Automatic annotation (TrEMBL), chain B:
One of its GO terms (biological process) is ATP synthesis coupled electron transport. It comes from Salipaludibacillus aurantiacus. NCBIfam families: PRK05715.1-2, PRK05715.1-3, PRK05715.1-4, PRK05715.1-5. This is NADH-quinone oxidoreductase subunit K. NDH-1 shuttles electrons from NADH, via FMN and iron-sulfur (Fe-S) centers, to quinones in the respiratory chain. The immediate electron acceptor for the enzyme in this species is believed to be a menaquinone. Couples the redox reaction to proton translocation (for every two electrons transferred, four hydrogen ions are translocated across the cytoplasmic membrane), and thus conserves the redox energy in a proton gradient. It is a multi-pass membrane protein. The gene is nuoK. Coiled coil: none annotated.
Amino acid sequence: MIQNAWLIPVFPLIAFLILLFIGRFLKEKASYVGIAALALSFIVSVLVLFERIGGETYTFVIEWITFGESTITMGYEVTALNAMMLIVVTLVSLVVHIFSREYMHDDNRIHVFYSYLGLFSFSMLGLVLAPNVLQLFIFWELVGLCSFLLVGFWYFKPEAAAAAKKAFLTTRIGDVGLLLGLVILFNQTGSFDYGVIYAAVENGLINDTLITATALLIFLGAVGKSAQFPLHVWLPDAMEGPTPVSALIHAATMVAAGVYLVGVMYPLFLASSTAMTVVAYTGAITAFFAATMALVMTDIKRVLAYSTISQLGFMILALGTAGYVAGLFHLMTHAFFKALLFLGAGSVIFAVHHRQDIRDMGGLWSKMKITSVTFLIGALAIAGVFPLAGFWSKEEILASALLNGDGFLFAIALITAFMTAFYMFRLFFKTFTGEYRGGDHDDPHADDPRVDAYGAADVAEADNPRDESMDKEAHVPPAEDHGHHHSPEENSGFMTLPLIVLASLAVVAGLVNLPFMGYPLEGFLTEGLNLGSQPHGALWLAILSLAVAGSGIALAWAMYYKGAIAEDFFAKKAPGVHNLLLNKYYLDEIYTAVFVRPTVAIGRFFWEMDKSIVDGMVNLIGRSTSSTGRSFGRRHNGQLQTYGLVSILGGIVVIALAFVLRGYFG
Amino acid sequence: MVPVTFFLALAAILFCIGLYGVLTRRHLVIVLVCIELMLNSVNINLVAFSAIGPFANITGQVFTLFVITVAAAEAAVGLAILIALYRNRNSIDVIKHDLLRW
């Protein structure tokens, strides 16, 4: 079966092509095409994984281009790492396909949605299977495109269109770095193949400065894709896309591509201690800052978005401190429970009629049993509670930060773990416990600009006059309709089944790397690679991480469930900090002032220049020609006698000239 | 013997009068008449050279006959056009016929 691994990306591609051409006629049935394709991919992935566990890395390449002495190949490769990634991607994609069946069912463009999902799955799986970095780069750009298409799926919402553009442009900065890194690598090694690059790095064929430069440039690509500081700003805005997309692309798979890239190029990073330090600190800073912002957000999806950034920071931190397995292990477990949380959030949003502000929720526990329980499992998993998946992977990251990093990194990681537990349970308590606050017709936060900006954006959209049909497409019902009248209830099986599947995975996914089973995942991933020994924590570290998670949960419980501490206790204590966090450290504003405005100004300058000087010259030529024509044209008055006079005068002039100059008559 | 220059001067004077008329008269019939005048001044030249030119022979006079014939035909065609024009445009004022304008 491993020889047929190429089938895995091909199934979604076929689904994409089918939906592209005949999707219009399938409408809602389009979802079955997508689901079937992903189910097949998943089955093949499972078979491939089983075969890979017992077997060897399988590579199949054909020659693509030959020039000079270099040959570029294309094909596919099944390594331990990408066998694992295949499972993660196909599984999450499959459950998201199933979930969307219900979530998107009254959208007129559901077939377009499914075709995009198919294209994305194809690109992501192609990225994972790529045997060389050039092919990886091609698919890397394709997933970026799919992200753009899907974030902007409701393109008639201005926020969505702006978010799509922002996501695309921000990741582009990283992509430029990646491309430059690849160019240097090719220049130095004459090949894009992973094997050749590893060997060149190991044998010292590239000098140290270049290795560091290349590693940092490639890391820049990862920073863009995995939303690391300072390029993380696109991810929260990308939440304007449909929620299943957020779950699939912006939580579980595509954003993990950056981590995967670092994992795949790991020998290169290991060869440069500078690069490793940069990676570790970027990860730690990102994890910390994103977590602080998640503390105060009130939009359910934005909390999860910042949480995603923070968790990706954890993975990068682990990779930067030589915790290769820890980072990739967390990538896998995080994919499951973050997809679970996002789909849970989607289920909630769907049930409360497309409101996203957690201050309008509450009391959903008794109304939506399955969603609540699965969401709780996801929250426990991400907080790192024993024995769920997140506990095992996070504990390894902490161990990695402690043993190979320094005290600063470890402290940051620990604080972030505490904040993670706190904001997740803040979200949980606000959403599922207490009284349902979304029932009243008048929006209690109507005056709050932030609600206007995020929470009520959908409702505001309904006021848009051109929206008769758009409403249906975006299925944002006008507030006056059936919007807020009946209370939320549990959604159908299409939405709860994915939650149950992911929740069970969030429980058991940690088992693949249990310490007392001899770290099977570690053995699998590091086999044949020369990565040094992997860090493992002592028992006290596990207990410490549990205590940290427990205290975070306890604080959230005291503030948002019990009410022992007022909800705005900290906001009152430090209003400056609270404001800073609410405004996301003013990073968007700073970027606007520092990068966007000058760029736009330069653009405008050149535009003006083009308009006035370049166009001016062209216009001058045109205008002078036509004005000459016009002035001669005016002489053309149709008067026979004027013509005659001019002809005769001309004749006289000619004769006179001939007379004077040539002496013709003389 | 009258010198040839006298004939030539007469022809030149007639030609200029004709030309002046062609360029200034607004009445189309007068313009046609003036064209005839110009043709005839050329005829005087031809006849003068044929009688007392350096290579005097009969060709000049034959040519004159042709010119007179053509002039007659031209006058007929010209007048016909003039009448057609008048019927269509209700005017034979040269100034008003400026259809060739840009």
